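Lab notes, practical 5.
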Amino acid sequence: MNLSPQKKYRLNNPEKYKEIQRKHYHKHKEKILERKKWYRFKKKYGLEREQYEQMMQMQEGLCGICGDREAEVVDHNHNTGEVRMLLCQNCNRGLGHFNDDPVLMRAAANYLEEQ
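Output from the prediction step:
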């Protein structure tokens, strides 16, 4: 097996290599986390950074439901994977508690209006 010098070093010096990785991570933590965020958005939602930023701009940074709080969450259809809007944590959790079921949500709204 023909290994590159880097791979040989890593295999022969695992503790030193871990220390090098740790230092690199702490030095570049913000960039690494930012890159991971956009990779996750692309993988999970099929959403590019530019698309996300466009949605955020269209919603003026606010939740697509209440319009009061900062949009922090990408809401998507769990069956189709289609991205719907950006929501605040509270509204996103509310949809989740109602299993994204509009009939159930309307029943809850009717209940509140009748009380």
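Observations recorded by the TA: Residues 29-45 form the longest helix (17 residues). The radius of gyration is 22 Å.
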